[in-house]
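The following block was generated as part of the benchmark described in Methods. Ligand: iron/sulfur cluster.
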Amino acid sequence: MTGQSTSERVRYPEFEARHPWLVRLLDAYHLSDEAVRADLAEQTALRGRSVACGPGCRNCCVDQVIPVSEFEVLGLWWYASEILEGQIQEELKQRLLGHGQVGECAFLVGGRCSVYPVRPFVCRQYYVFSKPCGPGENVYETRFKDAYRAGLDSARDLAWQLIPLYGVAEENVDWLFESGYISRKGKHLHTLPLDNIVMHMKTAAHLRKARNA
Ligand code: SF4
Ligand code: SF4
């Protein structure tokens, strides 16, 4: 959604030193991005059609169900509070408080994803071939052949990063993955109390100010 990713893993040393879950989440996102990048290149050649997604394209950020695990939500929460600042953070606050366009993802600010480096997996793996999605179009229904479908190996790599965060022993990761553990742990992003992030933004700003005083 809203453009392809870069190949570099994003790094936030100060925060990664404090939050082990963040290291795993960013590793998992990077693995996912790399797997998708390789897949897209292969499928572009096989299908003889180009990926239609690009910067500024955003119909996929409107009227969509976004399933997320709690660690993906934590990533959004952290990024919005600790990394975003200035006008973009102010605009995001308004959207999180429910003042955005009906149907648009709350994190879409000024037509772009405001949390792009930590956008959820489903957003990182949603690509379409041939031509951009129309408003309200669900390509799985309208032109299934143009929908990109992420490979199972990439999903298994992700499981190895994320399932241990739930306190699961490594020997249990494979069978839990096969049983759909991550999906069962998921929630729909826009059914969560996202306005709580605004309160956390204010607390984080207050703490930063106190630290810098
Ligand atoms: S988090 Fe929202 S704005 Fe960002 S890519 Fe996903 S749907 Fe779009
Ligand atoms: S083509 Fe569709 S999936 Fe790709 S960025 Fe545009 S709206 Fe999103």
